[in-house]
Amino acid sequence: MPRAVAAIDQGTTSTRCLLLDPDGKVLSFARREHRQICPRPGWVEHDALEIWANTQEAIAEALEKSGLAAADIAAAGVTNQRETVVVWERETGKPVHPAIVWQDTRTAELCGRLSVEAGQDRLRARTGLPIATYFSGPKLQWLLDRLEGARARAEKGELLCGTIDSWLIWNLTGGVHVTDPTNASRTLLMNLGTLDWDDDLLGLMEIPRAMLPEIRSSSEIYGFARGLLAGVPVAGDLGDQQAALFGQTCFDAGETKNTYGTGCFMLSNTGTTPVQSRHGLLTTVGYRLGGDRPVYALEGSVAVSGALVQWLRDNLGMIRHADEVEALANTVGDNGGVYIVPAFSGLFAPYWRSDARGVVAGLTRYAHKGHFARAALEATAYQTREILDAMNEETGHGLAALKVDGGMVANATLMQFQADILDVPVIRPAMTETTALGAAYAAGLAVGFWRDLGELRRLWKQDRTWNPAMDRETRQTLFAGWKKAVQRSFHWVDGEGS
Predict the structure, then answer these.
(1) Helix (H), strand (E), coil (C) string for 322-383
(2) pLDDT > 70: what percent of the chain?
(3) What are the b/e assignments for 173-193, b being 16+ CB within 10 Å?
(4) Do the Cβ atoms of 102 and 154 come closer than 8 Å?
(5) Other CB atoms within 10 A of residue 126 CB
(6) 261-290: b or e for each residue (b if 16 or more CB lie within 10 Å)?
(7) How far, CA to CA in Å, does 85 sit from each of 160, 163, 271, 276, 358?
(8) Assuming Cys at both sites, which of 97, 101, 167, 236 could form a disulfide with 443, CB separation 3.0 to 4.6 Å?
(9) Region 386-403: what's the mean pLDDT?
(10) Torsion-angle region of 326 (φ positive above 0: left; ψ -120 to 50: alpha; else: beta)
C-alpha cells in the first residue's frame, strides 16, 4: 500500500523533493541549488538541463533518506517558479535557449509596444494581468523573434514550450506536454473565462498554438513517471504561489496567505468568480480540481524579498549565510533612517513600474551594516503592507489575520515587524513548506490518498502567532518614510514608464 506522496518544488534558486506521509508530515527532504545566470543588466536566465539534473538528484536523495521505493509512492505533484519560460526540441528534449526567468526585464521594449494601443491594462479583461515583463508570453515572443527559424519550427510542432512545470512533467513522463490553469494564467495568453489559449492573444504575440502545452486541471493524472519514480502517477501541478494557497488550506473566499521566498506573494481566494482589480493587483486562477469549477484569486506580487538578503550576502559580503541577517539586524534597535527599495528589475504590485531601479535612501554617517540588514528585512514587510492596503481597497474589508509561509518566516524579527507594520496578527503554520504541501495535496487528491478538502483542512496546524505591538504614530512615520523612498526609485530607466 502506498505510504507517501512526492512533491517536486522547483523554485527560483533551488529544486527540492519532499516525501510526505498521510498526515502531511515530511518523511524526507532533499535540495539542490542551481546557478543564476545574468548575462546583461536586467537579464536573468536558468539552465533548464541543470534544473532537470538537480530534480533527478533530489528525487534520488529523498528516496534514499526515507528508505522508500517508487512502489511506496502514491503520486507525484509538481510546483514551480511561475512565468519562467523554456523552449525545447520535441525530438531531442534539448532546450534551444536558456530559460528566461520571471525576474528578467529584456522584454521591456516589447511590452511597451504591446501597451501603445490601449495602455498597460489592454489585456486585463481577458487575462487578469497588466502587460509587464513579468509574464511569459512576451518572453516567448522575444525568443521566437530572435532565434532564427524558431517560429517556423514551432508551427511545424518541432519546438515545444512551457513554464517549468511543463518542462519537468515532460521529462518525468517521457513526453506528456501539459500545464495547469494556475501556470497558464500567468502567460498573458490564456483566457480567464475559457481556461484555454486565446487565439487573439496568440496572434498578437505571434505564438504558434502547436508549441503550447495542453491546459489540464491542477489535480488529475497526466501520465506515469519513468526512471527513479517509474510507474508513479504524476497527478498534481500548481504554480508555486497557488500551491502555497492550497497548502495553507485557503479553500474559502476571503482566506489569504503570504509567501516569503525569493519574491513575496500574497494571494486571496475570491471564489469561483474572477475579480478584476482596480488597484494594481493580479486576477489569477487559484486552483482547479479535476472537473470542478476553477477557484480564482487576487494576487499582489513583490519581485524581491529573500533575494535582497542574498544580495547582501553575495554582492556586498555583509553576511556569509542568509540566516545571519537576523542577528545582524538585531545589533541595532531600528533602521537608523535607512530604507532599501529593491527594485532590481522594476517594481511589481501595486506600481508595475519597469522604469524603477533599486535605491538606498536616508544614508548618514551614522548608518552601518546593521542598519542595512534591518532595512533589508523591513523592505519585505513594507512591500507586503502596500499589497495588503490594495487588497483592502479591492475587497472593502480588512484581514483578521495573515497566514504566512516560505523560508523567511523562520525570521522572528521580520515576522514581528510584519505584524507591527500591518497592525494584524501574523500566523505561521507548523508545516512551513506549504508550496510543496500544496503540490502533494493536489496529487494525493487525484489518486485518493486524501479524500477531500475537509480532510486536508484538518491537517493544518498553527505553530506561532505574532501580534502587533507598535504604536500607531511610529507605524505611520515608518511607512511614510518607505513611501518617500519608493518615489525616489521611479524614472531611473529612460523610456520605461508605467
Answers:
(1) HHHHHHHHCCCCCCCCCEEECCECEECCCCCECCCCCEEECCCCCCCHHHHHHHHHHHHHHH
(2) 99
(3) beebbbbbbbbbbbbbbbbbe
(4) no
(5) 17
(6) bbbbbbbbbbeeebbebeebbbbbbbbbbe
(7) 11, 5, 28, 26, 25
(8) 236
(9) 85
(10) alpha
Helix axes 412-422, 472-488, angle to 10 degrees: 100
Q: What is the DSSP string of 65-106?
A: HHT--GGGEEEEEEEE-SS-EEEEETTT--BSSPEEPTT--T
Residue 212 · residue 87 · CB < 8 Å: no
The amino acid present at 155, given as its one-letter code, is E
Measure the CA–CA gap between 254 and 294, rounded to whole angstroms: 16
* DSSP element (H, E) containing 14: strand 14-20
Query: 434 and 242 in contact (C-beta within 8 Å)?
Result: no
pTM of the model: 0.87
Enumerate residues 6+ apart whose C-beta is below 8 A from 1. Answer: none
- If you search the block for the grid coordinates 522547483, which residue do you land on? 10
Question: Which amino acid, 364?
Answer: T
Question: What would the pLDDT profile of 52-95 be if each residue is shown by its tens digit?
Answer: 999 999 999 999 999 999 999 999 999 999 999 999 999 999 99
Residue 2 backbone class (left: φ over 0; alpha: ψ -120 to 50; beta: rest): beta
